Amino acid sequence: MPLNNTIHEVTQRIRDRSAQRRARYMDQMKRAADQGPARGHLACGNQAHAYAAMGQDKDALAAGRAPNIGVITAYNDMLSAHQPYERYPELIRQTARKVGATAQVAGGVPAMCDGVTQGQTGMELSLFSRDVIALAAGVGLSHNTFDAALYLGVCDKIVPGLIIAAATFGHIPGIFLPAGPMTSGLPNDEKAKVRQKFATGEVGREELMAAEMASYHGPGTCTFYGTANTNQMLMEFMGLHMPGSSFINPNTPLRDALTVAGVERAAAITQLGNEYIPVCDVLDERAFVNGVVGLMATGGSTNLVLHLPAMARAAGVELTLEDFDQLSSVVPLMAKVYPNGLADVNHFHAAGGLGYMIGELLDAGLLHDDTQTIAGQGLARYTEEPKLIDNALTWVEGPKETQNDKILRPANDAFQPTGGLRQLAGNLGTGIMKVSAVAPERHVIEAKARVFEDQADVKKAFQNGEFTEDTIVVVRFQGPQANGMPELHSLTPTLAVLQDRGLKVALVTDGRMSGASGKVPAAIHVSPEAALGGPLARVQDGDLLRVDAKTGVIENLAPDFAERTPAVADLTPNKSGIGRELFEAFRQNVGLASNGAAVVV
């Protein structure tokens, strides 16, 4: 199938827009690669420091002829998604030795959990942790002793931060090794119902805790299709995973076999061999377009609309919100995974998963097949499915038909003809909405505004019974410069209760929502943010607002809206407590949400 015209046109526009930035980037990568394998430039004393603790690998490292693989790990045992990485370094080292290579843990990066910090002060550091991760990975790789890198990371800000680092060190090959989702526990929709009952006082904390623990119950990513699992999809669509590896459960023989295969592949594609595949060749404009197509087709996390532009900039590629919106207009929504449906990612994988979806999108002309991936040339390799046959890992032809059309449908018979995200623009600014999980009858909301500057005040108003009519809740001064742009996902149960009571409600904010959000229409990432004097700072209680996901409009209908003086908030409390002091420089220097809300790129 020829490439879809819109996919072609958007890709060409990105290529033209990025030409100068991309050329500078690729020239820098070429100059770094032309210097040859890094260890040859280190003095003997430099090398001795690097190899001192390497035991049986010392001689191979000193000889400099074997590929040396650097491991950047987000391991910690507080995060279920990253706990499985505890076993990876030794498995990686053992595998490297078997193929005539060496491996060293180059450094660790922080990995905070938005589930732990949701609704808490620590959430104000969450988005900035992406830049810290990029910086920390850069420190590890700056020792300049590595011929390839393995990146161990899964969750919300971790993969985007690691991609920024991998692109910055794009002259060396890099492979992302996933850990996989936890096995299915209490269904996500049942957990959500208990949360709503707790919000209304129908159940107590003991019942809420039991439901939460039954849902989040073991090693691996959370099973809903939020940011963590969207990240895994992206790495596959963009060609940085081993094919079919995203959603294999942790601590299983197939999971370990795929990790081994990733190490073997990293050793094979270094500059010392005959199949040199640096990250810079993988992360071009076609790869990013494929990633956005995957985001739309799966109904993925809104957080990636922030992360992908920042990731792309690190590789010399410039993405805009218009690119997302235009790609969404031609990409069908093929999957229904919670919060867009009742299934979890394990059910999605069993129904055919990413391999089936990539095959369908390729056949429909909606993906670039001519991309460079770590598995070789062409994305078609990612339609294959890994299997352990007689204890040997092999890839076989993936499913050609969906195994459950309530979860996964073909491109020509999708759940809806367009993607899961919509750009919104108007006199309130520019933002986005995840429409894939919002019922069609709620795509247009026109109602009076209630304005808040703290999410806790929304909950208080709810508890006081103040929401008695259709309402558009405006939560402002939640942008990156104001307080680090925290997720406001803890508002979801509250607003969902109002919606279930028959009220028409929506959220408008310059903050973020979790990738698990979606039931309530939410215009998020509104830019320019209120702290910069953006339009949200001029909204007043009682203003008639319109949030229209059908036409892509967010507007204030008050006749004097444009002439008002913007409100100014006291942001002093945002500057201290739970580490916020350390991030003042980030708040002062962060870019606009529409450009990725980044500090380091």
Backbone structural class:
alpha/beta
Taking the sheet with the most strands, its summary is: 8 strands, mixed
**Nearest-integer average pLDDT:** 95
Q: What overall geometry do the principal axes of the alpha carbons give?
A: globular
Kindly provide the radius of gyration, computed on alpha-carbon positions and rounded to a whole number of angstroms: 24 Å
Tell me the number of helical segments per DSSP (H or I, 4 or more residues long).
Answer: 21
**Amino-to-carboxy terminus distance:** 36 Å
Number of strands: 16
- Please state how the strands of the largest beta sheet are arranged side by side: 9-10-14-13-12-11-15-16
Helix coverage percent = 25-40%
Content of β-strand: 5-15%
Poorly predicted residue ranges: none
Question: What does it look like?
Answer:
This is Phosphogluconate dehydratase. The protein has 601 residues and is of the alpha/beta class. 36% of the residues lie in helices and 14% in strands. It has helices at 5-34, 44-51, 58-63, 88-98, 114-117, 126-141, 158-168, 188-199, 205-215, 227-237, 253-268, 279-282, 285-298, 303-314, 321-328, 345-350, 353-363, 455-463, 480-483, 492-500, 584-589; strands at 68-73, 102-108, 148-152, 174-176, 372-373, 376-377, 384-389, 392-397, 421-426, 429-434, 444-452, 471-475, 505-509, 522-527, 544-548, 553-556. The strands form 4 sheets. The chain has an 8-stranded mixed beta sheet with strand order 9-10-14-13-12-11-15-16. A 4-stranded parallel beta sheet has the order 2-1-3-4.
